[in-house]
Amino acid sequence: MTAVTPMINYFGYLLDGANWAWSTSGSIPHLLLQHIEYTLVAVLISAAIALPVGLLIGHTNRGAFLAINIGNAGRSLPTFGLLSLMVTLVGIGTLPVLVALVVLAVPPILAATYAGIRSVDRSAVDAAVGMGMRPTQVLFRAEVPMALPLIISGLRSATLQVCATATVAAYVGFGGLGRLLIDGLSFNAYDQVFAGAVLVALLAIAFDLLGAATERAVVSPGIQSRGTRRTRPAPASPPARTAGTSR
Amino acid sequence: MIDYAVNNRSTILDALGQHIWLSLVPVLLGTLIALPIGYLAVRYRSLYQPIVNIGGVLYSIPSLALFVVIPAVVGIGVLSPLNIVIALTIYTLALMARTVADALLSVQGETTRAAHALGYRPVRQLLGVELPMALPVMFAGLRVATVSSISLVSVGAFVGIGGLGALFTRGLQLDFIEPILIGIILSVLLAGLCDLALVLTQRRLTPWTRVVAR
């Protein structure tokens, strides 16, 4: 290897048209689609678990201690370790990868949902109760709309993490963009590794932009103007984030 | 599992030791670099959004890719532990730059105006009032950064340096559950202990939060 590697080397794999052919399996479009599929399925399953639990805990404020600690414990589980464990237990397949990714994505969604509901101004909730709303109405007509920015930001960061971590799955013979990383690594093909890194980062950015667009589409304009621009950090800060630390 | 742990004691302890410094040195470095960057994002508000966006992009690069691309870019060997340290420092920086900015922004206007009215000059106000008041939010971010750094280190095992991650690859290769379980347990315990240490430190540093909390 020469001391100075020409820049073009890094882009060699990305710029080679043969790697973009639809017909060959294992080509960039195939891996990309697989990666999108894993990410979406894992996030959807995680949301299906974490959203109802987070809403319930936030609304009743019961089991908050449990939610926070499960969240922290889940976050500290090494995904690669969990993946290895699942593979030795049930063998190579979709299940171990999905379990590892779901365990990764549940904590941020759960924590954000809980924190979002808890950070809703109590007087607004009281007003909703005073208007004669039943508990489910209070939850879905008052608390959820106001908590949406935080809930969506939880979903966005979960998606980001899952998208980046799904690459690890390639180590246990799985597809997705991780293949470029693992295969490139074993052949010392840095341009292939670089291609994988760039594509995963771009995909993550695309997912995040999609999340931002969704947020703009579903969050009520009244809350957006208050919640985004200037005071953007405020909703996520003292009441929400320190909820875990002070209790 | 106990037999395995006893028989392989030195391997496991070496892996744990490597895991500890591989994960904590980057947290320290990343946080130190994030402090001035976060401050700049607050001081020059137009920098806030770019810094948040760059952080998001950096965080979205898979760790596995960084571990492989960094040596090629920096010119060190793939097997150099420095590799993992740089990668995880980048993640901590990405996470903490925004956290520092958000933490400083979370300080109430009344507080800073009161400090100003008391005659605090900008530097003293920053160090004596705003920074301490920003600690709760900063610590919340630091806890996330620390815990995720500890759980990320193991991915380094793909390239041969991953602390406890070495136990995972070994278990996978031998189709053997013991090293994997031991690795996971130690990693979670380490994360829990560091998290606890941060919580206790924060309590000492910010006694007023306990009074304010309902």
TrEMBL record, chain B:
CDD domains: TM_PBP2. The keyword Zinc does not apply. It is a multi-pass membrane protein. One of its GO terms (cellular component) is plasma membrane. The chain crosses the membrane at residues 20-42, 54-78, 84-105, 150-168, 180-200. It is found in: Cell membrane; Membrane. One of its GO terms (biological process) is glycine betaine transport. Pfam families: BPD_transp_1. It comes from the Bacteria. Residues 16-197 form the ABC transmembrane type-1 domain. Keywords: Membrane, Transmembrane, Transmembrane helix, Transport. PROSITE patterns: ABC_TM1. Belongs to the binding-protein-dependent transport system permease family. This is ABC transporter permease.
